[in-house]
Specification:
By secondary structure, the protein is mainly alpha-helical. It is built from 1 helix and no strands.
């Protein structure tokens, strides 16, 4: 067993420089390659994550602004509808007032015309009474006068 132990010791002794070189290479690579590379990758990931977070925040802000805009737009639309309805009601009230005024004026005109017609009827009746009596007497005289003559012809005046 002594030969194997010495061979192992000799093998181990010959691998020490390789192990030291591999360890030194590992330390050098870690310090000059992996550490900066890891820092760059971490920085890139942070920037990407930050950009995504900012994009999400901006999207949320844009959505909120869109909701506010839609709400303001809806409120403005309702205000326009309210104003339009108020204007329509005012127009209808004005129209109704004008119709009522026209109705009162036409009723006054009709009443005046009826009173005028009634006065004309009364005047016409009076005139008829005053003119029918002499006319009736004339007709009666003509008829009675022709009966008195006996010839059947009426007297000519």
């Amino acid at each position: 067993m002594g030969g194997i132990g010495s061979q192992l010791a000799q093998l181990f002794a010959s691998t020490i420089p390789t192990v030291v070189l591999v360890f030194a290479l590992f330390v050098i690579l870690k310090l000059y390659l992996f550490k900066p590379l890891t820092a760059v990758l971490k920085k890139r990931e942070d920037q990407t994550t930050g950009a995504l977070a900012r994009a999400r925040e901006q999207t949320a802000e844009a959505d909120e602004k869109a909701r506010q805009y839609e709400s303001a737009f809806q409120a403005a639309r309702q205000e326009v509808y309210r104003q339009r309805e108020a204007a329509r009601r005012a127009l209808l009230e004005d129209r109704q007032a004008a119709l009522n005024l026209a109705r009162r004026q036409s009723e006054a005109l009709v009443n005046a015309a009826q009173a005028s017609l009634a006065a004309e009827v009364v005047a016409s009746k009076k005139e008829l009474l005053t003119t029918t009596r002499p006319l009736g007497e004339e007709i009666a005289g003509t008829i009675l006068g022709s009966a008195a003559n006996g010839n059947g012809e009426g007297a000519k005046s």
